[in-house]
Amino acid sequence: MPQRGRRRRQRRKKPNWFLRIMVFMLVGIFVFGAYILYNVLGAFSDTQYELARGDKSDKREQAVNTDDPVSLLIMGIDERPDKQDVGRPDVLMVVTVNPEDKSAKILSIPRDTLTYIPAIGKEDKINHAYSLAEVQQPGTGIESTITTVEELLDIPIDYFAKINFDGFVEIIDTLGGVDVNVERAFKQKAFDGGEEIYFEEGPAHLNGKEALAYVRMRKEWGGDAGRNERQREVLAQLMQKGASFSSLTKIDDIIESLGRNVDMNVSGGELLAFSRKYGSIPKENIESLTLEGTDVMRDRSYFILEEGEAERVGNILKAHLNLPTTSTVNTGAES
C-alpha cells in the first residue's frame, strides 16, 4: 500500500513539470518575439522617410492599409560618398501585391527610359529624376522619382524603399546568398571597382557582391532587357527568402543593415503585417512584366518606349490594384 501511495504522488508531479516546461517555453517565445518586435520597430525608426505629399499618393482618393492591394517602388541607388556624387537609381522596380489572390507583379523600368520628369519640367532619362532633383534641391530626389514613375504608368505609388548597393550586398549575404540560372556566360566588374567577376552558363549560387554584379551587367549581352530580367529573378527569390523562418535567426543582422542602408515610408508595424500577409506567396503567383521599346542614340543613349506601352503595362498594374483601367490604347483592331 505505501508503495502505491508513493507511485501516485510521483505521477501527480509529472504534469507539474510538464506545465512548468510549457510555461517556460511560452514565456521564452513571448520574450523573444517582443525582443524581435522591439528591435524591428527601433531599427525602422532609422529607415523612416516622410514624403512631402503625406501618407497618400495624389492618385488615391484615400490612404491604403495592409488589407488593400498596394504598390511599392524599389530604388537601388548607385550612391558613392567618396566620389561626392548625389547618386542615381541603377535599379527601378515597381512591385504590386494583391491580398485577395496572394499574387505579386514585378516591373523593372529600364534606367535609360525617356520620359517626362515633372520636377525639372522636361524629358530625360528616368533615373535622372533622382539625381537632377537632388542637384536642384537636396532631399527631393526620392519624391521626384516617385512622381515621375506615377506619371509614366498612371498608377499610385503607395510605398517606396531606397536601398544603396552596400545594403543590397549585406542583406543578400545575411540571407545566405541567392540561386540563379545564368543564361549565358559573361563577366562584370565588381561595384567597388575591384576584380572582374566571371559567371559561367547554368545554375549558380551567388553571394552579395556577385549578385550585385549579376543584376547590374547589361553591356556584354541582353542590354537593359536582360538586366531587368535578372533583377526580377533575384528580387523574386529575396521576397521568398526574406519571409522564411530561417531568416528570423538572422534578424539582428538584417535589422542592422536596414538601419544603415535603407530609406522607406513603410513602418515596422506595416512591414510585419505585410510579411504575415504576403510571406506565403507561391513562386508561380509572382509575374514579371516588361516594358517594350528600343535603344536609341541621340545626344546620349535612351530607351524609347513603344507607342502605348506605358499605358498597356499601367493598365495591367491598375487591374492588379483593383483600380479602373483606361481604354485608349490602340490595339490594332481598327482599320
UniProtKB/TrEMBL annotation:
For this protein, the parts annotated as crossing the membrane are: 21-41
Coiled-coil stretches: none
Q: Does the keyword Membrane apply?
A: yes
Residue ranges of domain Cell envelope-related transcriptional attenuator in the record: 88-242
- Where on the tree of life does the source sit, at the highest rank? Bacteria
Keywords linked to the UniProt accession: Membrane, Transmembrane, Transmembrane helix
Q: Which InterPro entries match?
A: LytR/CpsA/Psr_CW_biosynth, LytR_CpsA_psr
Identify the Pfam families for this entry: LytR_cpsA_psr (PF03816)
- Which family does the record claim for this protein? Belongs to the LytR/CpsA/Psr (LCP) family.
Q: What PANTHER family is this protein classified in?
A: POLYISOPRENYL-TEICHOIC ACID--PEPTIDOGLYCAN TEICHOIC ACID TRANSFERASE TAGU
Record's protein name: Cell envelope-related transcriptional attenuator domain-containing protein
- In which organism is this protein found? Novibacillus thermophilus
